[in-house]
Amino acid sequence: MIEVIQDKDWALEKIGGTSLKGRLYGVKYSELIEALGQPTFNQESGDGKTQFEWVFEFDGDYYTLYDWKTYDVQYTINELTTWNIGGKSSAWEFIDALESLVKKTQNA
Questions:
Q1: Alpha-carbon dihedral sign for residues 32, 38, 44, 48
Q2: How far apart are CA 89 and CA 32, in angstroms?
Q3: Element counts in the chain: helices (H) and strands (E)
Q4: How would DSSP label each residue in 47-78?
Q5: Using an 8 Å Cβ cutoff, are 7 and 55 in contact?
Q6: C-beta of residue 66 within 8 angstroms of C-beta of residue 86
Q7: Can you tell me the distance from the alpha carbon of 56 to that of 46, in angstroms, rounded to the nearest whole number?
Q8: What does the pLDDT look like over 11-67, one tens digit per residue?
Q9: Domain count, the chain
Q10: Domain that holds residue 87
């Protein structure tokens, strides 16, 4: 089961050292909100490289889903359809579960 972490401090502690593991394609921000709820971090990062980021716990590991270097919140909300997925270990099972969850929402 995919669980979105909403506690920002705890999420920051868990995602240190994550790196790009894959991408989620063909999904708009509104579809992510519908499928996952609000992002863990819903404002621009300090360096401006991300506008929104979800942090997840999945099978004992932690993953992130985020826009990368769009530098524009309106672009991210209205046009972006490719999202980066970060983690500390292989993310294939997480990506499959995330894609399935989002597709259910898209087809509902």
A1: negative
A2: 23
A3: 4, 5
A4: TSS-S-EEEEEETTEEEEEE--S---HHHHHH
A5: no
A6: yes
A7: 21
A8: 999 999 999 999 999 999 999 999 999 999 999 998 999 999 999 999 999 999 999
A9: 1
A10: 3-107
